[in-house]
Specification:
The chain is an alpha+beta fold. It contains 8 helices and 8 strands. Helices cover 45% and strands 22% of the residues.
Length: 264
């Protein structure tokens, strides 16, 4: 019998697909997958998203000025200590400094969300946002205002999405659709912030691995994370959960969540 459960797989699925798990942990995941169709689907989706990120997202070369600075930083130090091990230490220190420059240059696009109870929600939010970005028809109901979009969900969901923010000049509401969040149906609202697409998922919160929020938004506390270059804001209000995802600035998403929280 597998030593891990579905929640454990959801927590490490990104590292499993990326091949970053230890051999022992990877074997435990593989054993669990043999008898769990739900986790097989989760891993398949993660592989598809990873492939999509590798082939569909734009790539940018480093500017020549940065390349020259890095090349200069890698030159051996002019004075070589008599102790060869001390010399090696100096070279490694220089290389580490260069690595730090590289990390700072590209870090925001590579940092993974820390482990924790909400990692499952963060990973799900990013995957669902990518589905919105690359869906042929991501909007099922065009926006004529929230009072047109919200009633459209009646009969399509087993809960009422509590949201009253109609959009404004900064965050334009484009429309909505029905989606899934983890294992339950969700209302998907799509906003536009300049050239950025912003996905808002509203879903039943019960049974999901929430943790204490770190950012005050209205009367609630939200969790703000970053994964694969996307920012995610998670907030629970009673029976409902809210997830906002976009490649827009974190401050913009916190501001939007404040507008949504203030209007509900």
């Amino acid at each position: 019998m597998s030593a891990i459960e579905c929640h454990d797989v959801a927590t490490v699925v990104f590292d499993h697909v990326a091949g970053r798990l230890s051999n022992e942990r990877s074997a435990e995941v593989a054993e669990h997958l043999e008898s769990c169709a739900a986790c097989q689907k989760l891993v398949a989706e993660e592989r598809a998203v990873s492939e999509l990120l590798a082939t569909r997202l734009p790539r940018y070369g480093a500017p020549e000025s940065l390349k020259r600075r890095l090349a200069g930083s890698l030159r051996p130090p002019p004075r070589v200590p008599a102790n060869r091990f001390a010399a090696l230490g100096m070279w490694l220190a220089a290389a580490a400094a260069v690595a730090g420059v590289v990390f700072l240059s590209v870090g925001p696009h590579l940092r993974d969300v820390d482990g924790g109870p909400e990692r499952t929600l963060v990973t799900e939010a990013v995957n669902d946002h990518l589905r919105v970005l690359y869906a042929a028809h991501p909007i099922e109901i065009e926006s004529g205002g929230i009072h047109q979009v919200k009633p459209w969900f009646s009969g399509r969901l087993d809960f009422a999405p509590s949201i009253a923010f109609d959009g404004d000049a900064e965050f334009a509401l484009e429309g909505g659709s029905v989606g899934y969040f983890v294992d339950r149906k969700a209302a998907v609202f799509i906003y536009k912030l300049r050239l950025h697409t912003v996905s808002l998922f509203v879903f039943p919160a019960e049974g999901l691995p929430w943790s204490d929020g770190t950012v005050s938004i209205g009367h609630h506390r939200a969790t703000v994370s970053e994964l694969r270059g996307f920012h995610i804001v998670l907030l629970r209000d009673g029976d409902l959960g809210y997830a906002i995802v976009s490649d827009a600035a974190q401050a913009d998403l916190v501001k939007l969540m404040g507008k949504i929280d203030g209007a509900t």
